[in-house]
Structure formats: C-alpha cells, structure tokens
Amino acid sequence: MLPGLAMTAGDIAIEGGLVWSGPGQHHSDGLVHIRAGTVAYAGPRAEGRVPPGTPRLDAAGCTVLPGLIDAHVHLTTNSDHQHVIASDVFRGQVSKPAKLLHGLRNAHRALAAGFTTLRVMGHRGAGEPELRDFTDEGLAVGPRLVVAPWWITMTNGHGDLFYPPYTPREQWDTADGIEECRKLVRLQARAGADFIKVMASGGMSKGERPSWPNYSIAELTAIVETAHELDLRVAAHALSAEGIRRSLAAGVDSIEHGSYLDEEMAIEMAERGTFLVPTMSFNDWCQREGTLRGLTAQGVADLSEAHDRTLKSFALAREAGVKVAMGTDSSGTLCPFGAHARELELYVRHGMSAEEAITTATTNAASLLDRPDLGSLRTGAVGDVVVVEGNVLNDIGRLAQPSNIRHVVRAGRELSGYLRAVSEALDFQEAEHPTRAEDS
C-alpha cells in the first residue's frame, strides 16, 4: 500500500503555526485536533487537548487553513501537460473512459495543491458521479466532488456548440421548451446530480458569440423551480448582460463567469444573495500562455475582451457587496489543475485582502455548496486541512507554490506521502508547472 493511503476517516493533531479557522479567527500558536474525520478542537495550543497516541503534525512556521474549495472545474479534461490537445479535439475524440482517467489525475493534482473539494461541471457519461461515490466510500483517494453530471443547453446554445459538429448528438444533449427543460432537470437528479448547471448565454465556441442569451426567462424559471423542488441549486453559465439578467429573473443560485455584469445587475445579485464565481484564471492563463496551450493567436485575441470585462465585473460585484465564491474554470491544459491558487492571487491583485480571498475558497464556497460542514475549522466541521509553509495572510502567493504545501489532510488522514508517491509513479512531475509565472 502506498504511504499515506487513506480509506477511512482518521485522527490527527496539527500543532503550532498560524491557524486560520475562518474569517477573523486567527490563532498564532494554534492547535487543530481532528477525531474520526471531524474537527474536535481548533484554537490556541494547550496541553491535554489531544489524547495520547494521536498522530501529530508540526506546523511551526506554517499557516493552517481549512481544505480549500474550487467551485468551478471541468474535471475530465486533458491531464497530460506535455501533450497539448486542442480543447475541442479532446472533447470530440477522446473516449469517455479515457476522460475519466484524465479526471482522476486532475483530481490528484487539485488535492496535492490543497483543494480538498471540487464543484465539477461534468461531461455527460464521463463517470464523475461514480468517481465521487468511490471517493466518498473510501474506495479511491481524491478531493470531495460536488457534481453536475452534465449541463442543460438549448439547441444551438453554448453547451450544444461546445462540442464539434462531427460529434454525434444523443437524446437530452439539448432541451428546448419548458417541459423538456423540466424533464432534463429530473433526469439529471436521477443520475445523481448534486446541482444543476444551465447554459444561459453564449460562450467562445466556434459558431457562437458570448453576447448571445440562451433560453427564455420562462425556460430558465422552469429549470430553477424544478431543481429547487428537488433541493438542487442552479449554476448559470452567463457571460452576456442579457443572459445574466434572465438568470437573475429566474432565481438562479450562482452566476458563473458574469463577464458583462453591470452595476444594476450587481446590486440585484447582492440583494438576492446570488453568488458570483468569476473564473478569472481561465482567461488569465489563456492571455499569458494560450498559444502554448492549444489556442490560436486569434483565439487568444477573441478572449481578450472577455478577460477585460471579467475584471470590471469583479470590481462592480465587490463594490455592490456580491458574495464571491472562488472558481477557476480549470480545464485541461488551458487552465491546469494544480494551479488553482492563481485565482486567489488575481483576487488580491484586483482589490481583495488575502483573508478576503481565502474566504472565497472556504466559507463562501461552502455556503454556495450548501455545505456548512466544509470551509472552516470550527468544531464539528469536516477535518480537511492544508498546511502551507510561511504566512499566507501576508503573501497569498505562497499557496501557488507546490513546494510550500507541507501537508494535505482529508477527513483526518494525512495524504501528502500518498500524493507524492502517486505523482512519481504516474510520472506527472509536470504538475510542478510554474503556477506563478511572471506577468507580462
């Protein structure tokens, strides 16, 4: 058995260092005690808090954080950073079993970077719900997965055009009209959906424009009402102003990307409690390295306006008091898994404090997922922890350096040894890609 392999919840104590339990809750010489996979204590270090024989980790000189959450990833995408495949080619030509194996490698990368929970925008039939269940049952090692098995899209909408024209379409790849939309929500719930993703605007695929709205307010409302009746939240891919407006009118729970958000809509989002998942990382990677990652020069140029608009939307959202949940849009080689903390660096560069940024990947993201047991180190929370060398509150960039991730704990089990062994065994040392490349 590989070192550090965790099949069940465990007990562990993490001693010393700066313990960040949640917003405004810091302990400079702290202690976190996890018992049976759950936080039993987090606070100042004190003798007698930990039973004899409990495994201990020394976190002196480190920051101790709750396990981090990336609220927008495409898991079953290309994991081979040394073999760049254009995104549309990968989607159209790689088999579903191969996509799942790529997804497992991507999951390991995310976990090694301290991201213990991923909200997955799934690809139909690629096996993400099954991987989630295997992980939950202790049959596989990986981050917690919160999965939408596939998206809901109209004919000629973003999700339809996301796949190349030569890809055979199956029934329910698209849904048109109120009744088809309702049925597809129910089918996804039956397939094990944790949430619903709907395409409410165009994107950057061939043959479409991000300015196009997708779906009427009536269709979006039917999706939201049906999902909420089944206790499922709804994430809306919405770049265009009209797509965002219709999504808000329908009552979606989160706006993904939100590139063309305006001041009026930002105020409405804040009033409604609608989350924004900005996904700055994707455009950032594409602008800096897109031609090395399978994009044409024209493709990079086409993304430039969306990149600039996302920064403006982020500023408007913060000014209005919109709740921001961190999401990267990690997707194959275009926005690599393992580099998730780049998103937090961008938030800090564009106005957030380091603590605000960390909150987007912990407390806020857990709230979006409706998982109050995640994203904090309070008593009773899930025992997911990342130990980072140095003071992350002074330098958010420390999270982005793989060598700074001292320990990753999932449900009370220390997994760093396992993750290092898997990395060596599967020869993905390219996971040590430069996550903090110099800005141009």
UniProtKB/TrEMBL annotation:
Name this polypeptide is given: Imidazolonepropionase-like amidohydrolase
InterPro entries found in the cross-reference section: Amidohydro-rel (IPR006680), Metal-dep_hydrolase_composite (IPR011059), Metal_Hydrolase (IPR032466), Metallo-dep_Hydrolase (IPR051781), OTAase-like (IPR057744)
Gene3D superfamilies listed in its UniProt record: Metal-dependent hydrolases (3.20.20.140), Urease, subunit C, domain 1 (2.30.40.10)
Domain Amidohydrolase-related: 63-414
Phylogenetic classification of the source organism: Bacteria, Bacillati, Actinomycetota, Actinomycetes, Pseudonocardiales
Origin: domain of life: Bacteria
One of the record's GO molecular function terms: hydrolase activity, acting on carbon-nitrogen (but not peptide) bonds
Entry-linked CDD domains: Met_dep_hydrolase_A
